[in-house]
Task: inverse folding
């Protein structure tokens, strides 16, 4: 089997599997070989499921041969982030404390992936307990960005971003509490979707902050993200935050003409302190949509001025409550960076937390009001480019700026509101990808994906791929 198949998107290879031009078993074996070959340099996988994956691929192949094709993930090999449980198998959360943890049950999303016929090839590296944005793990090592191995891939779903960018997984799942799907997707040149809070059930996913956590797809294309979301969306009573609302046909919503689309732009927050090449690429795409018939409308969301404090007060407080016992009894087993954050979280008072929820309500109300007048709000995903591994600062127009604060500044508001947010790649700056973020109305992922597909159709990446995976596949 040609390694070139691994370059294809999940939906492209799905069509070949459905027509039986490609064997799920041979495809899975090829992907596993490629992933093993690259993992020493990229470090995207924490663990592989070679035997289990090949068995799943064989079962898928037999079903398809019998005419029982389940849909666009059937027989497609993919890995998932290592805070999402597979029943009977180790899920580490990239931690020492849970290094041997085995769940009894599959998570909601793994159950749905199995129902869709996906082949799960392994578990992907991440920032410890999903609380970080550079994916430099003291326990499992740093993940390297396939566009430049010296750069961070973003986090906390850095292994997910690196794996898909390097063709070590066709699509994948990440989790997002302050941007952990969208940050590595932007840094690695992927499409990443944080769905509406409650759209995808979180049963069987180790929490970081209950009211902010989301699970969603990280993919090579908008079509792949739509197909992956289709497979995992839906209610599960075992997750108290899951919402029982109808699931749209996301793939059918893609494409079309942006004529009549109303784009909201919030200048005061989302275009303040942005690295110039990033701002230029994002505005260029907005102008392209307008040239094709979209309308532009400025919106104002004043409460965004307090969103960074609100996000941190909420996430740190909830995370510290979750990890309080281990912080008291096993602090030496926590990485120094997250131990500091958990300790910091214990300093917030109940007054601080409740005040943050009042501000959060105001932010949500202002977003809801703005989205009554526009279809989506477009912004940069990240205001700065990915720095070198080990750096705590990023470059903002020639000046150093704090990395964590910068990376979550534009992504965190959608966790506070729970609104769906999609990042799509729109070009390169210094040979690294730049992401554009599309924020939509609650449970209207279809419109967000549709706009993403209209941007993707202009081919802003001009066929450029992450060099690490591309070189390996041509050897």
Result:
């Amino acid at each position: 089997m040609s390694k070139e198949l691994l370059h294809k998107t999940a939906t492209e290879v799905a069509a070949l599997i459905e027509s039986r031009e490609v064997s799920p078993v041979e495809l899975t074996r090829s992907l596993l070989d490629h992933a093993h070959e690259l993992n020493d340099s990229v470090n995207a996988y924490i663990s592989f499921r070679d035997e289990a994956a090949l068995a799943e691929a064989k079962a898928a192949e037999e079903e398809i041969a019998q005419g029982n094709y389940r849909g666009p993930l059937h027989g497609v090999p993919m890995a998932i982030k290592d805070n999402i449980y597979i029943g009977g198998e180790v899920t580490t959360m990239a931690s020492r404390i849970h290094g041997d943890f085995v769940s009894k049950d599959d998570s909601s999303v793994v159950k749905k992936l199995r129902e869709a016929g996906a082949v799960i090839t392994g578990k992907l590296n991440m920032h410890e307990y999903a609380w970080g944005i550079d994916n430099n793990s003291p326990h499992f090592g740093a993940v390297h960005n396939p566009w430049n191995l010296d750069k961070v891939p973003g986090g906390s779903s850095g292994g997910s971003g690196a794996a898909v960018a390097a063709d070590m997984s066709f699509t994948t799942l990440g989790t997002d509490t302050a941007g952990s799907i969208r940050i590595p997707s932007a840094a690695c040149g992927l499409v990443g979707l944080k769905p509406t809070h409650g759209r995808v059930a979180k049963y069987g996913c180790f929490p970081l902050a209950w009211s902010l956590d989301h699970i969603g797809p990280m993919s090579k294309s908008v079509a792949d993200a739509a197909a992956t979301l289709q497979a995992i969306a839906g209610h599960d009573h075992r997750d108290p935050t899951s919402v029982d609302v109808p699931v749209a046909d996301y793939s059918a919503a893609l494409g079309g003409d942006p004529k009549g689309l109303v784009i909201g732009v919030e200048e005061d927050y989302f275009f303040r302190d942005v690295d110039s090449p990033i701002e230029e690429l994002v505005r260029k795409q907005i102008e392209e949509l307008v040239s094709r018939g979209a309308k532009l409308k400025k919106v104002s969301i004043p409460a965004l001025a307090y969103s960074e404090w609100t996000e941190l007060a909420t996430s740190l407080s909830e995370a510290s409550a979750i990890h309080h016992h281990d912080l008291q009894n096993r602090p030496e087993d926590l990485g120094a960076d997250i131990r500091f954050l958990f300790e910091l979280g214990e300093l917030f008072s109940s007054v601080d937390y409740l005040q943050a929820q009042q501000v959060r309500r105001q932010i949500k109300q202002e977003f809801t009001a703005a989205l009554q007048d526009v279809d989506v709000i477009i912004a940069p995903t990240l205001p700065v480019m990915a720095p070198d591994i080990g750096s705590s600062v990023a470059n903002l127009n020639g000046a150093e700026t704090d990395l964590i604060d910068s990376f979550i500044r534009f992504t965190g508001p959608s966790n506070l509101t729970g609104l769906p947010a999609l990042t799509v790649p729109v070009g390169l700056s210094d040979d690294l990808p730049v992401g554009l973020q599309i924020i939509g109305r609650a449970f209207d992922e279809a419109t967000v994906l549709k706009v993403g597909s209209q941007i993707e159709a202009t081919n802003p990446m001009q066929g450029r791929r992450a060099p690490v995976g591309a070189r390996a596949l041509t050897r």
In short: The radius of gyration is 21 Å. The CA atoms of residues 41 and 320 lie 33 Å apart.
